[in-house]
Amino acid sequence: MNLTLPFLWYQKLDSLCRKYMFVIEKYGYITDDEEKNLKNDLIEQGFKIQNIEILAPKESVEYGQMINFEVKYKINSRNVSVLNGVFGTNENNMVINVKKTSFCKR
Q1: What does the pLDDT read at residue 60?
Q2: H-type helices in 1-106, by residue range?
Q3: Which of 12, 76, 84, 102 has its CA 20 to 30 A from that of 48?
């Protein structure tokens, strides 16, 4: 599997998660509007939204409480290989997982 492509997806996903973690810290949860904004940002960055899973608090937590925020992206890649002059392909499924932990700051 080409490791460059998953690494680039991870970097994009990590950057967006960092941005939205600040929002979640501010409110103590992810609002419906901010979740829509996150999904729009993911689409703009080239992610297939049907392959995205967002795990974030839906209800407000109190100041100082721990917040876990996680986004998973499933990718499927095809690799071409040549073995003894015979071409073949194989598919690899991979989940790119970015998890952020912080504390409520509202």
Answers
A1: 92
A2: 4-27, 32-44
A3: 102
